[in-house]
Amino acid sequence: MDKVTNKEAVSVMVDLGIIEGKPDGSFAPTEGVDRATMAKLITYVLMGDVDASIFEGTTTDLTDIDTNRAEGYIKYCYANGIISGDGQGHFFPTQGVTVVQAAKMLLVALGYDADASGYQSSSLWSVNIMKDAQTAGLLDGVDGTATDTLTRDGAAQMIFNALFANTVTTEFQYDMGVQYLSKYVDDGTTLGYQTYGLIEVTATVTGISSGNATLSNVVPSAAASLVNEKLAGTPDMIGTSVVAYVKGTLNADGTVKSVSSLYSTSLSAGDTDVLGTSTNGATIANLTTKTNANYISTIDEDATYFVNGVVAVFGAGDDEYDDTADLSSKEIVRGSVVEFIDTDADGDADIVKITKKTVDEVTGDVRTRTSDDVLQVLVPGVITSWTDADEVSGYEGLADGDMVLKVEIGGVTYLEKCDTVEGVVTSKNSTGSVTVDGSNYYPSGLSGKTYSNYDDVDYVNTWIFYLDNGANIVAAEQVTAEDSDNYAVILETAWVSTGGVSATSYAEALLLHTDGTSEIVTLDELDGNTIVANTATPGDDETKLETVAVGAFYTYSANSDGTYDLESVTDTATVSGTITSGVAKFSEGTALGNSNTVFLVNNDGTYTVYTGISNLPSSITLTSGTAVQKTGGIASYVYMNVSDVSDSSDLNLVYVTSTSYSTRYDSSTKTTYYVYDVIIDGEETTIEAARNDIFSATGLYDCKLDDGVVVKTGTSLVDTATNISTASGGVLVLAEKLNGEDTFIYGSDVVVYIFEDDAVTVGDASDLAATDTDAYTEEVAVVLVSNTTNNQVSAVYIIRADV
């Protein structure tokens, strides 16, 4: 059955005895079905398991079926107009039956009239058949064209569809004595019910008992005793909708009157629609609030909640939850997988599955043994005692050092090797997230071996980050060990002389380290030469203290006696002028900064360290500065003496919802401010401007604010492109060029703002899609990631207008 595409259809056909497997136990799903076999199958559909011999007395004009094993079934179908020969006495029983031929047979079995519907005498017979078969649902899930030979797998699906299609009665009318087809009247019952009393049962798997599935929400409820804990189930079924089939009778209104026996020997997957999945730690309240960015859907009042395969019970008991808020606080962390599942197609979740795994590290080679003919497994650090192998899934292929996610569901422990991302970190922030290759990764909240070395993660070395199912970090491991020079800036130097019996003299310096701390040290050598007083005459291998330049970078090393040796840094550049947050270049000088650059800012004796050019204050005016340059002219460290620091914040884009404004008068500065309604980062707010003419129209502007006041803005709306051509696989293609480019890259952390009717919806990568040009047009603007070299965007703004 592993290669069977239509597993449910085949299972039902086998359970009803309509289809059998091959003598070797296989089903051979891709083998073709011949015309004789199809006649037999349709006879079984109409009459159940009946012996062909009862039809042997039926007379036909077919001359090529006498020796065929299905002779009786062919005669039955021929006599009932289900099949026809070629008009010359031939049926060709051993030829493969085509999709259109099988469809015609089943349509007639359902009550359609072959002659009246143009299945036989019309030149469009094939078109007529395929059209009615499509309408009746016979072709759902069936591959192949009309003239293709029907496979055994396809036959099972087509017959399955026929069993659940309603039979029809032909209604004729007459025009001037000529009979014509008026319509087909739906009989209100299915072919499967008429022949087998076949009734579908749906249920939700809520547990596993002795290998069989425990079921709830059984519909019809009368079938509960027939199906509950009677059919095999696996732990991964828990929380999903399943289907079984029973024999029963219906009332006149179509409701179930009674059930008598179970046809199914296995459960099939039901209509389980996963409405959405969350792994970022959002609570159930957030996931069900339409105005929340994490919204998935509402939840049915009688929904069932699962935590690692166990039904969550609400109450006051020790193992119960007070409410969904209590459930969220105890079970939902960043890394928990929360699924909203709809099993009744009403758009609301009736199942909420929470899977909360733990994190472990494999600490040795996986071992197996056989004990009393039972295979057992031991996974050091993860499964620490010998356990039957059928109770552990996913241990194959694990190796020493692997990080794994572990969860036990229904008595089976599931192991999953963590996905990884590798690279150099370009930024870190207060939330604990790191940026690698333009994507943000947050610390996981899963327990076990947790991500505890965040502070050790640097901007120089390559790191491997191990991820949970939501791409959150569970562990980090340094891959490379780059040489890290000890850089420091010389702030002051002095020659110190002491008196007394043990009089001595030595060079002293105040060092500013790259972490912003300062230290007074005793100097011994500079570039391998002993440092002497400025008043001394240097000998060979000696140099005066004055050659140690204040404000310059040096590398240093500590000697065993506590003194320090300095080495000059030659690859430096002088910087001056101004530097603006997020802008890589100084206004004067050739050095460039990036997200790894460490800035040491001396503002009147107060030293502040900023890592990354985007983390600098909005604007800094330098009196002097020195940059240590690395490959490509990028500054690794910059020391700056500054005269002015402006800490206004640079907004990406501001959406002005109206050019109307109110005013506010500041009496202390005697200034009138004009207050505009805007949307910033998806939030409705206001900003102020000193002029009333800076926003000429509603739309997007690139603004810089200082304490909520516009200090700089573009003179017109930002550039946009009309419509999105495609958006998939992390590639956004615009229908026209935007600033010379039409292709952009986005990650899972991209923020998408959709403006419509002056309201905004905040979304993510899943909200990027090709523009439905029949419904609306879209003006698109993008915000590029700082220093991107591949057009990677951090945000996409879409202004949508109806056509």
Give structural notes.
The chain is mainly β and 803 residues long. The chain folds into 9 domains: 7-192, no CATH class; 202-250 and 261-269, no CATH class; 274-356, no CATH class; 359-417; 419-478, OB fold (Dihydrolipoamide Acetyltransferase, E2P) (Beta Barrel); 487-568; 572-647, no CATH class; 650-713, no CATH class; and more. Helix 1 crosses helix 6 (152-163), helix 2 (35-47) crosses helix 3 and helix 2 runs parallel beside helix 4 (99-110). The radius of gyration is 38 Å and the shape is elongated. It starts with 6 loop residues before the first helix and ends with a strand. The mean pLDDT is 86.
Number of strands: 53
> Gyration radius, to the nearest Å?
38 Å
Strand-pairing-aware structural class: mainly beta
What general outline do the C-alpha atoms trace? elongated
Q: Percentage of helical residues? A: 10-25%
- How many domain units? 9
The poorly predicted ranges are none
Terminal-residue CA separation: 50 Å
Fraction of residues in β-strands: 35-45%
Kindly list the characteristics that best describe this protein.
single chain; 803 residues; mainly beta; 7-stranded mixed β-sheet; 6-stranded mixed β-sheet; 10 helices
How would you summarize this macromolecular structure in one to three sentences?
This protein has 803 residues and is mainly beta. Helices cover 11% and strands 43% of the residues.
